[in-house]
């Protein structure tokens, strides 16, 4: 019969490739029990959206089955998302991570990416909120198929829930089709209210859909709370790419780590002949990401079903989960979750974090 010490020793050889350390020293191995020739244990990953779950699971089984005296491995995989160090202990906030989705200019599919990212992460088992901070054109309610929020409770705004995601938008509070002229201080207090007056509950990830460009909302958000990171969405053509450079630069100045660039509307796959046409150019996002020294997270093809799903309030990852665009979105969601884990586990907790002002 193997000893618990031998089991732990064997598991020290299983390295989390993303984090570059063994799963024992990362604290991922729990509840190890050896009973005769049977070993039972739980491996706690740093995100339910881990892109390497199957690989780690296979390596754990192989490592244990190679031990003399082990015939059966009862392995449970679970996940616990680590909190961003600077977000811990801020009174009244229960977010483990805040992720901003931005773009250099409008119409590149930023809200579409934010929606599908949030729904994909929730579908993988994470607790997710989606905050529509695009106050100039709040279209998240429509894209998520929700019209209103529940009545407030205990002086707190209650978010709507759609596809397992808690959703809040200025669109729920404003009369439809009436433009609002936002001034800087009003924007700042609206963003603060969305962070502190909404009963989000404990969230693994709060995804924030920013307005396009490099304006006041992003600045307010970054001043109010420490963001875990930002994702910048672009289309592959040159005009959009120079805009994305500005967006990346803005996040850098705000000291928000850029988790990567997403290239949306990349190529169009003809539904008749299956040939791909690069309508907006080719591979520009990857080249730009390389030039700017930020990760490239992937390409989402142009697919009419993306727009149809958006208009019908059914995000593509729900409406057509097997389509190449939905697969790309899920893959991007996994990569983002993995990068957040890497950032959180490599960053030491600072001595004090600023409260939301
Ligand atoms: N990959 C795609 N294939 C087809 N249509 C897409 C794709 N991505 C987005 N769209 C469509 O493009 C339009 C613009 O997308 P979206 O509203 O997400 O952009 P945005 O960058 O958030 O724009 P803005 O910030 O200006 O509101 C929408 O009709 C959306 O459904």
TrEMBL record:
MIP18 family-like domain segment(s): 5-74
Domain of life, source organism: Bacteria
CDD domains: Mrp_NBP35
Positions annotated to bind ATP: 104-111
Pfam families per record: FeS_assembly_P (PF01883), ParA (PF10609)
Gene Ontology molecular-function annotations: 4 iron, 4 sulfur cluster binding; ATP binding; ATP hydrolysis activity; ATP-dependent FeS chaperone activity; metal ion binding
Biological process terms in GO annotation: iron-sulfur cluster assembly
InterPro entries: FSCA_dom_sf, MIP18-like, Mrp-like_CS, Mrp/NBP35_ATP-bd, NUBPL-like, P-loop_NTPase, YlxH/NBP35
Record's keyword terms, sorted: ATP-binding, Hydrolase, Iron, Iron-sulfur, Metal-binding, Nucleotide-binding
Keyword Iron-sulfur found: yes
Gene3D superfamilies xref list: Fe-S cluster assembly (FSCA), P-loop containing nucleotide triphosphate hydrolases
Residues in the signal sequence: none
Subunit structure: Homodimer.
Chain's role: Binds and transfers iron-sulfur (Fe-S) clusters to target apoproteins. Can hydrolyze ATP.
Protein family per UniProt: In the C-terminal section; belongs to the Mrp/NBP35 ATP-binding proteins family.
PANTHER family: IRON-SULFUR PROTEIN NUBPL
Protein name as it appears in the record: Iron-sulfur cluster carrier protein
Organism: Thermoflexus hugenholtzii JAD2
């Amino acid at each position: 019969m193997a000893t618990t010490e031998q089991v732990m020793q064997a598991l020290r050889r299983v390295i989390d490739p993303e984090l570059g350390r063994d799963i024992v020293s990362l604290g991922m191995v729990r509840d190890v029990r050896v009973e005769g020739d049977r070993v039972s244990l739980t491996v706690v990953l740093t995100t339910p959206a881990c892109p390497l779950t199957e690989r780690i699971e296979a390596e754990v089984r192989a490592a244990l089955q190679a031990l003399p005296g082990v015939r059966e491995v009862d392995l449970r995989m679970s996940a616990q998302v680590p909190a961003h160090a600077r977000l811990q202990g801020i009174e009244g906030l229960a977010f483990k991570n805040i992720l901003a989705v931005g773009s250099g200019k409008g119409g590149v599919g930023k809200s579409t990416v934010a929606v599908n990212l949030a729904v994909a992460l929730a579908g993988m088992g994470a607790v997710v909120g989606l905050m529509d901070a695009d106050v100039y054109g709040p279209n998240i309610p429509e894209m998520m198929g929700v019209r209103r929020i529940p009545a407030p409770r205990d002086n707190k705004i209650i978010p709507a829930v759609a596809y397992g995601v808690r959703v809040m938008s200025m669109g729920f509070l404003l009369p439809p089709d009436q433009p609002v002229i936002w001034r800087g201080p009003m924007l700042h207090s609206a963003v603060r209210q969305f962070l502190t007056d909404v009963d989000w509950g404990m969230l693994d990830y709060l995804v924030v859909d920013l307005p396009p460009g490099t304006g006041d909302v992003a600045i307010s958000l970054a001043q109010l709370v420490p963001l875990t990171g930002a994702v910048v969405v672009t289309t592959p053509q040159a005009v959009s790419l120079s805009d994305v450079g500005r967006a990346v630069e803005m996040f850098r100045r705000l000291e928000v780590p850029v988790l990567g660039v997403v290239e949306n509307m990349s190529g169009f796959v003809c539904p008749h002949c299956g040939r791909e046409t690069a309508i907006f150019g080719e591979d520009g996002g990857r080249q730009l990401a390389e030039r700017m020294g930020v990760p490239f997270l992937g390409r989402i093809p142009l697919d009419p079903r993306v727009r149809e799903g958006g208009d019908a309030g059914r995000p593509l990852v729900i409406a057509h989960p097997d389509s190449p665009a939905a697969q790309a979105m899920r893959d991007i969601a996994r990569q983002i979750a993995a990068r957040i884990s890497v950032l959180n586990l490599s960053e030491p907790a600072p001595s004090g974090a600023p409260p939301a002002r």
